[in-house]
Specification:
Helices cover 77% and strands 0% of the residues. The longest helix is centred in the middle third of the chain and has 33 residues. It has six helices and no strands. It has one domain. It starts with a helix and ends with a helix. It is mostly helical.
């Protein structure tokens, strides 16, 4: 115990332990996200099964929309996994990558700036996939207002992504 630790009173040490110990309250949230990932896997399997079963009678457009839908599931699963791993490492317990050399670099040692970029990039990609799906389904029930909103959201997310990247770059340069 250092001299600074000895000088603090027991109430301060107790409050500190309570606050830093509360980080473990994140574990049930992360377990819930893991269950959400399992649910998404189930829905992906159902979608994949339906997609494969309909391939014989599907048009080229239907095949492309089906593939984009599967990509959408995959991107969403990636997003959930990134949130689970980075939240655990940043807020619950640090992970020593040397103890897990087989783990992908993209899932550990993600700082807050990196997490923001990965999250917004995933959201932009998911939105872009949804826009492509809607564009491929343009037929008799075309709703230009709905399409404009979807494209507008994609553009807004892309602008936010660029602004966050610029802000992070400016902040990094200011540190040096």
């Amino acid at each position: 115990m250092t001299s600074a630790q000895r000088q603090r009173n027991p109430v301060q040490r107790g409050i500190e332990r309570l606050f830093f110990g509360s980080r473990w309250l994140m574990a049930p949230f992360l377990a819930g996200l893991v269950l959400g990932l399992v649910a998404l896997l189930y829905k992906f399997g159902v979608k994949l099964w339906g997609f494969v079963a309909s391939l014989g009678s599907a048009s080229q457009s239907d095949v492309l929309v089906g593939i984009l839908s599967l990509v959408d599931f995959s991107l969403t699963a990636n997003l959930i996994l990134i949130v689970i791993c980075s939240t655990f490492e940043n807020f619950v317990r640090p992970i020593n990558l040397a103890d897990h050399p087989e783990w992908p670099d993209g899932l550990v040692q993600i700082g807050f700036a990196g997490l923001k970029q990965k999250l917004i990039s995933s959201i932009v990609a998911i939105t872009a996939v949804n826009v492509l799906e809607r564009l491929l389904r343009l037929d008799g029930d075309f709703n230009p207002t709905e399409l404009a909103w979807v494209v507008g959201c994609l553009v807004a997310f892309a602008v936010v992504m660029v602004l966050l990247a610029l802000a992070d770059r400016i902040a990094a340069q200011a540190k040096h």
